[in-house]
Amino acid sequence: MTTERMGQEQSASAQETIPLSEMRAFFAALDFAAERHAGQKRKGAAAEPYVNHLIDVARILSTTPIGSDLNLLMAAVLHDTVEDQDVQPAEIEALFGSDVRELVDAATDDKGILKDERKRRQVVNAPGKSPRASLLKTADKISNVRAIASSPPAGWGVERMSAYIDWGTAVVDGLLDPPKTFSKSSEKAARDMLRAAFDAAAADARAAVAKLAGGTS
Prior knowledge:
This protein has 217 residues and is an all-alpha fold. Helix content is 71%, strand content 0%. The protein contains eleven helices and no strands.
């Protein structure tokens, strides 16, 4: 991410004094996620620690008008613990509450299903996700698509990267576009910001892929 883009996102969120209890709750969730994902790396050529992605998803959400939604930010850093690290949903609920568990559930794929079917279900099920879950999943897609431009997955060819961008766009369309409704003004505003952010990320990623394709032709 460029310094300019980060500055734009940070300026979009109101400066607030965060209660100490909320800071402690967020860092408890982050500590739990960092411990469970310890040793896991991102697929990018730079092999960044996986926790960087979790923090990025929470940061993206924090810069929108729903950035004060503590449970949503906690779910952001926890969103892959069940899917990737075999954490049980009951443990998430016991530690962080039922609302966080429900958000994590909404972002979790069933690894017992073949990958192509999991991806198909993400597209099909996207319109039925709640507004908050939709915003969480969109922030996840923004982070992943930005990573294609900044640190392309090792071993991925241009066709696979292009297919991922197309698939991510289809998922986000279902998460954010009509007939999906966002009744709260803060959610509507966050939806618009994240839609724009995803579209920009997808355009940057497509440009990066096109550059790679040109270099290999």
